[in-house]
Automatic annotation (TrEMBL):
GO BP term, example: defense response
Entry-linked PANTHER family: DISEASE RESISTANCE PROTEIN CHL1, LEUCINE-RICH REPEAT-CONTAINING PROTEIN
Pfam family, one: WHD_ROQ1
SUPFAM superfamilies: P-loop containing nucleoside triphosphate hydrolases, Toll/Interleukin receptor TIR domain, Winged helix' DNA-binding domain
Organism from which the protein derives: Gossypium hirsutum (Upland cotton)
Name of the protein in its database record: Disease resistance protein RUN1-like isoform X1
Amino acid sequence: MSLLLSTSSSISRKKYDVFLSFRGEDTRKSFTDHLYHALNRSGIVTFRDDPKLEAGEEIAPELFKAIQQSWCSVIIFPRPMPFLVGAWRSLRRLLNKKNDKAHKVFPIFYHVDPSDLRKQKGKVEEAFAKQEERYKEDKDKIQKWRNALTEVANISGWHLNNRHESEFIKDIVKKISAKLCQTYPVVHDELVGISLPLEELYSKINIGEDDVRIIGIYGMGGIGKTTLAKVAYAEMLPHFEGKCFLADIREVSNKHGLVYLQKQLLSQIFPDECFNFFNVHKGNDIISHRLSSKKVLVVLDYVDNIQHLKCLVGRHDWFNLGSRIIVTTRDEHLLRSYRIDDVYKPTTLNLNDALRLFNLKAFDGDTMPKYDFIELSEHVVRYANGLPLALEVLGSFLCNRDIVQWRSTIERLKEDPNKEILNTLRISFDGLEEKEKNIFLDIACFFNGEKKDLVMKVLDGCKFFLDIGIDVLIKKSLIKVSDDNQYLRMHALLQEIGRKIVEKKCVDEPGKRCRLWKERDVHHVLTKKHGKSLNKNYIQIFLFINI
């Protein structure tokens, strides 16, 4: 379930998220201190300006370096306005960084009206009058200060405006966190085809909202669900007080049980604590109690049973406001039945992205294949049909092999799919009930791309309960219905796996298989009289489809 990292350099992350700039003693131990700690508690890495670092009229190198290493600056304008030379030089430097467009500046108007700063009237005018008296011989300096103040007052920021300070700080932190999150897709150009899915996922996660959200990512095996969740998790985790990524829950649950998973969840969020309980009910009580006061980010990867959700995330009120839970699964119905807040379904890669991903793996980081390999690359990409897992596995397998070996591999794929791809995709089939398995195999062998009404008509006598059976296959991402709701479609690799399942029942004798779809096999059975054990319904289906 992965999308490939390329060798292109990514945009390096800044050392700090916020450079917090303030002047005057009035807010140092009150508002500024509270805001600084609120930002850090939310995982927003903040550098706090220190006036002691000012050296006369110059900005200390430490401050200049911190500004350079910050994504944005937050400037607190208190009342009364401090007219320190260093403060104005620092403000000018911040505004110069803003004009580079790589650095954001957000002013906070603390007990001061931004319109007073723009118009420079009242107390602000009185303060400037004193400075003009002090700097009679340098009127240009005063004018530069006036221009800087007007410029910053015109920037969209936050105005206290008689609000409660705690509420005001909470709002600032939430909005900065949301703005930071919006920058994430920019740094993922190195992930082939992931920028748009990541952007769409973030819009559903909506990290800036002060609520609890459970978001599901569903789709067929190998489509990139886990990779998408991993990238989102890695980018967002600085903005949470606790975090947990539980990988491959299906496998871990089967091996170790639900209590083990509950302990893993708690241990990742509270790493310094030891949890001793021996049943899921006690685990539920502890999780709901401990997480209700902590803003957490949780990823549950590869959930395939509703009990996983009941025992690990329970209800929304188990979590503190601002928490986000991401669930990956192949089963859409599982998400819908649990009333997940929103779902996202990744799609297969388009042709250009598929070629780039395959070439990166097959040619050791080079996005352009050698001339002799172009046609063969396109052949493999068509075979993979946009599935990231298949592109990555086959590209890795063919890397550093010669053209003869490439041709041999392509021929072999016509007979035997790659085992790693086969095992990943077959998991979904193995989890089906017997009737759904039969419907899946019928579609794989006879009906891929056929009209839904035709499938219902032909299979009506098989007592497969098609209405619910087809819905199950759709919800488990094994088939899909066309946009006009008329045709049933199955990914080419899923179809190939379905047919291989049938063929392996009896490799050497087609007459002993439960389904025949190749004309030569049907001819062999009918003319050689080896079809005694063959279900005649499937010969009729073959004849019906091919008339």
